[in-house]
Every structure is written in C-alpha cells, then in structure tokens.
Write a structure and sequence with these properties.
single chain; alpha+beta; 6-stranded mixed beta sheet; 5-stranded antiparallel beta sheet
Length: about 400
C-alpha cells in the first residue's frame, strides 16, 4: 500500500484551457479519498494523472514516496476500475479476473488459480466464475472489475464513477460493498464521483472540485457543517442548503420570512457589508407545533403558506415560495449564474418530522434555529461565520 501526494498539479491543454489548476491533496496510506464535483470540474482528469493516462503539465505526483510523473501506467502498480467495467466479453469471469496476472507473466497457474478464487469468494462471485460478462447483472459485472483490481495487489485502487451505470437500489448496495471491502483490505483508494451522496457515505475525506480548482478537502461531517464557501454549501447536502438574501442591522439579520438575532462575534464580522446570503439547511427548520415550548425562547418563528408537501414516510419536505426584495434581484441573478444555481431565490425547502400535520396550501408556523445559520459574502463566496480555525462561530 502507499500514500499518494498531489503537489500543485496542473493540467493545461494546447489551447490554453486548464482542466486542473494548482491542486494539492495528500491521500494517506489506507485512506478512501473521494473526488467529487459537477461534470467538467477536473476530477476524472486528476484521477487519470494519478494512474498515468494523462500527462502532468506541472507539479509533482508522488506515490509511496516516489515521484512518478514520467512513469508509464504499468510501472506505477495501480489498479483502476472504470465506469464501463472494461471487461472482455469473450472471456469468462474467471479469465477476466485472471487477466492482469497472466499479463504480468510472473505468476504460476497455481498462484493465479488461488488468487482468482480468493477474490471471487470475497466478492461473492464463486458460482459465476464460468459465466461470461454478458450474462451478468450490472452489479455482478462491477464486482468482476473490482476482482481484477484486487488480484493485482496494487499499491492503490482508483475508481472512476464505477456506479453511475447502476440503478438507485443497486448503487446503494454496491456503495456498502465497496466501503466494506476497502476497510477490510486497508488499501489506499481514490474514488471519483459526481454524486454527493456517494461522496458523503463512502469517503474518509472528500475533496470538492469546481472548474479545475479545489474548493475544500475535509471529512464528510465537516463539509456538511462547516462549508468554506457558497459552492460547497450548495453542492453538499440533499435537499441542498437554502440560500436567502440577508441584510444585517446591528445584531439582527433580516431574511425574507423573519428577522433573527445573531451572536455578537458574527455581527462584528459582517457589519457594513450590504447584501449577504444566509445559508440554512432544510433540517434546521421545525414545525412549531412539535417544538418543545422550552426551546422557543431561543428560536425564531414565522408564518408562511406551504406550496408543496412531499411525504417520504420517515420525513417530509415542505416547499415555501417567496420573492426576494426588488433591490437585490439583479445581484442575486448574477450570483445564480456564477454558482450554476437556479434555486437561490425561488423557494424555501423545509425538512419536517414525519409526525408534522402541515398540509399543502395551508399557513404553517415554522421555527428556525439561527445558531445553525451561515452567512456568505456574495462577492467572494466565503463563509463569514467560520472562525480562522474553520469552526462555526455561531454554534
């Protein structure tokens, strides 16, 4: 196994376009690192530079303490699992898994047989060893691709959106299998996905990329609770964080629905900044009828008409439309374009307990906890409620 160090990695093409821009990430030995971001953010390009399928324009790629920029892919001893499985359709499951061992020409038939059968047992493929890939389900084919990586005893595993071709239920099952397998083997793993649910459930740490730049690299909980900027806050979480236009006046923040008190430490940092964006996650709202009366003195309340209610059994989502103040419409429209977002000023999404009796078309009393609110600078995107250490100063 081996640690992977990416030091100021840049990928620039002949036309001057930079797909990866000065990215530095250290992946610890045995760690499962997720690279996540929207299409075109540079995550797959970065993965291909790790394995050696893309040249590095500048910077250093270090694997196991060795600089590998000029090394060919076969000399890096890394195993890659592709989105389309990359299986040989004319070969059996057994021969597909054995292929990299035969290619190496250093293993005896007995050794190959043992390694293939051990990998097949680990992946519950033993009864399918003589079948062809075309006769397997998507999940089984993905396990065959993983088996081929396992037998190589590579220094690290690289996954390029391996579950994107599977249906939602199978993706959930395969996520669990990949996580369990990676923990058991303790192999360094870099996993690329555009699905933030995969990122948050699988990774020891998650690196969020956008337009070739690294936005934040942290543990999933830190990304969720302490996003460093607007993009990370909006990309991580489902449903995404609500962004509301906010004006700070003294120790209060005026939102479209309600005016809330903020801690003095936050108020000092944001005075005189004009328009801000308040970020509040859907679950930080509550149905007033279900709130402990003892908590109400510490929270703020507002009344609004609910447009849509989605009941999911264990929880509900209420959608409340609103209009931003006319004086900030232009600023918000420009910000939407910059963030690739269309939901900054259209509706508030509230996550409610399954016991809530709020109904579509009715007026509802909603509580919000201002201590869980983030304030962002629209000009820079920075989260102004984070202390220099990165913690949330309002909590």
């Amino acid at each position: 196994m081996a640690a992977i160090e990416m030091k100021n990695i840049v990928k620039e093409y002949g036309d001057g376009f930079k797909a990866v821009n000065d990215i530095s990430i250290d992946v610890d030995d045995g760690e499962l690192m997720i690279l996540v971001g929207p299409s075109g953010c540079g995550k797959s390009t970065l993965l291909r530079m790790i394995v050696g399928l893309e040249d590095i324009t500048s910077g250093d790629m270090v694997i196991g303490g060795e600089r590998v920029n000029e090394k060919a892919p076969r000399d890096r001893n890394l195993a890659m699992v592709f989105q389309n499985y990359a299986l040989y359709p004319h070969l059996s499951v057994y021969e597909n898994i054995a292929f990299p061992l035969r290619l190496a020409k250093v293993h005896s038939e007995q050794d190959i047989d043992q390694k293939v059968k051990e990998a097949a047992e680990t992946l519950e493929l033993t009864e399918h060893l003589q079948r062809k890939p075309g006769n397997l389900s998507g999940g089984q084919r993905q396990r065959v691709a993983m088996g081929r990586a396992i037998v190589r005893e590579a220094r690290a595993f690289l996954f390029d959106e391996p579950l994107s071709n599977l249906d939602a239920k199978l993706r959930g099952q395969m996520r669990t299998e990949i996580a369990r397998l990676q923990r058991r083997m303790g192999v360094t793993t870099v996993y690329v996905t555009h699905d933030q649910t995969e990122a948050m459930t699988l990774g020891d740490r998650v690196a969020v990329l956008r337009r070739g730049y690294l936005q934040q690299c942290a543990e999933p909980r830190e990304l969720y609770e302490q996003p460093v900027n607007l993009f990370v806050a909006g990309f991580i979480g489902s449903p995404p964080m609500n962004f509301l236009p906010a004006q700070v006046r003294g120790s209060q923040v005026e939102l479209p629905f309600v005016t809330v008190e903020i801690p003095a430490s936050v108020a000092e940092k944001v005075q005189g900044r004009g328009l801000l964006l308040a970020g509040i996650r859907p679950e930080y709202f509550e149905d007033a009828s279900l709130v402990d009366p003892a908590k109400r003195s510490r929270r703020s309340t507002f009344n609004a008409t609910v447009d849509v209610v989605e009941w999911l059994g264990n929880e509900q989502y209420a959608y409340i439309p609103y209009e931003a103040p006319s004086e900030v419409e232009k600023e918000l429209a420009a910000l939407e374009e910059e963030l690739d977002s269309e939901a900054l000023r259209t509706q508030l999404v509230v996550s409610l307990d399954a016991a809530s009796r709020i109904r579509r078309g009715e007026r509802a009393e909603i509580f919000v906890d201002p201590s869980r609110m983030h304030l962002f600078d629209p000009a820079t995107g920075d989260n102004l409620t984070l202390s220099p250490s990165g913690s949330h100063v309002a909590s």
